[in-house]
Amino acid sequence: MSDLRGFDRWTMPGPAYLPANLPPAAFSGVLFRRIMAFILDFILVSIFSVAIWFALAFLTLGLTVLILPPIFPFVAFFYNGLTVSGAQMATPGMRAMDLEMRLIDGERVPFLIAAAHAVLFYLSTMFPPIFLVALVTDGKRCLHDILAGVIITRRPF
């Protein structure tokens, strides 16, 4: 038999990076900045995708142009995974808009979670009303942020 005395009084302190524990300045203008960051990143991923497509077409002498799989999802997966899990904790578009992504406990986002976040985001774009969740959640978190366990804030000054 286990001794459970005092267990009901024990509470684990919540993560310091929860939206309720951050100053309001950390979230000022985040939604607009995220939209602008997405536009910049979408342009960059498109440029990389077209460049890779042409390089593959050139390397195969044009034989695989008709059977090349869509390259954009692969480029977006690695682009987001590598840039967000890197030292800057943001994609180039997010850096330009002064944003960063962290796990809900404040730690750096690992590659797989960052890449999965990108997949969830692009799946969310197929159902635009899902983005309305960000209007009512703490910290302006979108549904794909909640599912991936990340938070996007302004960079500390």
Automatic annotation (TrEMBL):
<keyword id="KW-1133">Transmembrane helix</keyword>
<keyword id="KW-0472">Membrane</keyword>
<dbReference type="GO" id="GO:0016020">
    <property type="term" value="C:membrane"/>
</dbReference>
<feature type="transmembrane region" description="Helical">
    <location>
        <begin position="38"/>
        <end position="59"/>
    </location>
</feature>
<dbReference type="InterPro" id="IPR010432">
    <property type="entry name" value="RDD"/>
</dbReference>
<feature type="transmembrane region" description="Helical">
    <location>
        <begin position="71"/>
        <end position="90"/>
    </location>
</feature>
<protein>
    <submittedName>
        <fullName>RDD domain containing protein</fullName>
    </submittedName>
</protein>
<feature type="transmembrane region" description="Helical">
    <location>
        <begin position="111"/>
        <end position="136"/>
    </location>
</feature>
<keyword id="KW-0812">Transmembrane</keyword>
<feature type="domain" description="RDD">
    <location>
        <begin position="31"/>
        <end position="149"/>
    </location>
</feature>
<dbReference type="Pfam" id="PF06271">
    <property type="entry name" value="RDD"/>
</dbReference>
